[in-house]
Amino acid sequence: MGLVRHGVTAALTAACGAACAMHEPGTSLGTFAVTGTLGTQTCGSGVTADNPWTFNVRLSRGANTLYWLQDASPPISGTIDPQGNAVLTSSSTYELQSATDGGAPYCGVVRTDTFTAALGTGPVKSFTGTLAYHYDVDQGADCSAVLPAAGFGTMPCDVSYELVATRTSL
Q1: CA 58 to CA 63: how far, in whole Å?
Q2: Which helix (H) or strand (E) holds 37?
Q3: How far apart are CA 11 and CA 23, in angstroms?
Q4: β-strands 53-61, 107-118: how paired?
Q5: Is residue 116 over pLDDT 60?
Q6: What is the pTM of this model?
Q7: How far is 86 from 162, CA to CA, in rounded Å?
Q8: Phi, psi dihedrals of residue 21, rounded to the nearest 5°
């Protein structure tokens, strides 16, 4: 999935085949139905931001680690403190133009995704949190001609969601 679509599968995962779907690290917290309400969208039409945005995610937990599991993708992990507050961060670089395309300069955009949630200390039946996407031009890239054509205003820019989730199965 490319830069213009923000979805969590693009944000926090990369396909790895059926083997990843079989592996669930830590102890399962369950599958959650998530609804995201758009908070910030400063990227222009270059990023499609659904509102509301609904999806399902599986969560599991190790001692100090929260795992985000979706489809047949590798788990993404981050820290979870003793009070059940979690932070997961992932970063990807998207090449919008190669330096070899007719002598044009390289244009790459770095997207940093940050998921935060308050899961609490007991069994997790629901949670609230945020999912934020931060876009910026890759170091050394020249995107002055590419970004306006792709629908972006200025960079850096951000898209964020407030999340509410309810467990649908354990």
Answers
A1: 17
A2: strand 27-41
A3: 20
A4: unpaired
A5: yes
A6: 0.81
A7: 15
A8: -65, -25
- CA–CA dist 99, 104 (Å, integer): 6
Q: Classify the phi-psi angles of 84: left when phi > 0, otherwise alpha if psi is within -120 to 50, otherwise beta.
A: left
How far apart are the C-alpha atoms of 79 and 85, rounded to whole Å? 8
Q: Tell me which of 24-38, 87-101, 114-128, 154-168 is least confident.
A: 87-101
Q: Six-digit token pair at 71?
A: 């489809």
Cβ atoms of residues 93 and 44 within 8 Å: no
Whether the bond between 156 and the residue before it is cis, its omega within 30 degrees of 0, is yes
Q: Classify residue 105 by its DSSP letter.
A: P
Nearest to 30 by CA among 78, 69, 63: 69
Question: Residues 6 or more apart from 5 whose CB is under 8 A from it?
Answer: 47, 48
